Task: structure prediction
Amino acid sequence: MPELLRTASLPLLAGLVLAFFVAWTLAGLAFGFALERFVHKPVFALPLAAGQLRFEAIGNLVFLAVTTVTVTAALRFQVVRLGPASLARDLGTFVAMLVTFQIFYWFLHRAMHARSLVWIHRWHHRSHVTSPLTGQSVSFGEACLWMLGYVGLPILLSRIAPLGFYGWAGYLAFNVLGNVAGHANAEPTLAAGGTRVASLFANPFVYHSLHHARWTGHYGFQAAWMDWLMGTEFPDWQRAFERVRTGKPLKSLKERC
Ligand SMILES: [Zn+2]
Ligand SMILES: [Zn+2]
Result:
């Protein structure tokens, strides 16, 4: 861990953590809204709900507050075992987080769609057509569950081998940026990115948009391989992608392709 963070007072540490997550959130918002504005390929040709951006902004504040408190506490109490910085350690940490977060998130997300737990997840699904603000628009309870991925996973992984601080921080930045920008109601993915193989590394934007419209599939995060393995894909997602990519947006949430 950098010396500055190790020796910082608690308020300074919290301020630095807050600045980190706010900065990456703002970068994601700027990128996501730019995609909506300049790509001209909306996934859904439908308006946002009345007051949507406002309640989404509130959700983001909740998420950022929970994240700041949790990550600050994790650093303060040094609950994640960190080793000396090295390219191999940081790269290994990034890849380990990339893979395990997707497994963790599929199971968490699937569980939150169970009848008994869906109340935790309803806030996120108030957004039927998504915006860049949708990504972090979650309830307090859901924000706390996300922390199992941001901090709980690294605690567990660091029991196997000491993690690299920059690999962990780098993954969190990537996660926030992708989650925020990835909720844009736009499809910037090129044709080559919509193939079966490419989707296992990164799914096109349409993929998660369909989850918000239809609810009962596509529980994964960032890539399609968990849904592919678990059999929770919508059979027409590639046709929907092709349609949106060629400039013909979906006209209703219920539409099948
Ligand atoms: Zn969901
Ligand atoms: Zn979402």
About this structure: Residues 109, 113, 121, 125, 211 surround zinc ion (ligand 1) (CB under 6 Å). The radius of gyration is 18 Å. The chain has eleven helices and no strands.
